[in-house]
Write a structure and sequence with these properties.
By secondary structure, this protein is of the alpha+beta class. The protein has a domain of 42 residues. Strand 1, helix 2 and strand 2 form a beta-alpha-beta unit. The chain is globular and about 35 Å long.
Length: 68
């Protein structure tokens, strides 16, 4: 699922998610993912993880990425 933390409907989309599930947040460099995690934790989500230091570093390290 792709949610834009800076999008006007981010909070609405997050409110519709199951707070008991685990969510991995990521962006290119980790800052927007961290912001999303903070918003979700403030909304009582208990299992949110930010991929640090971001997807670009993940790819540089040779880790797998599946793109559509």
């Amino acid at each position: 699922m792709n949610l834009d933390v800076n999008g006007p409907d981010f909070a609405k989309k997050v409110a519709a998610l199951d707070k008991g599930k685990t969510y991995l947040m990521y962006c290119a460099h980790g800052k927007r993912g961290l912001k999303a995690c903070g918003i979700m934790k403030d909304a009582a989500f208990t299992n949110v993880v930010n991929l640090e230091p971001g997807l670009s570093e993940w790819e540089k390290a040779g880790k797998p990425v599946k793109k559509k």
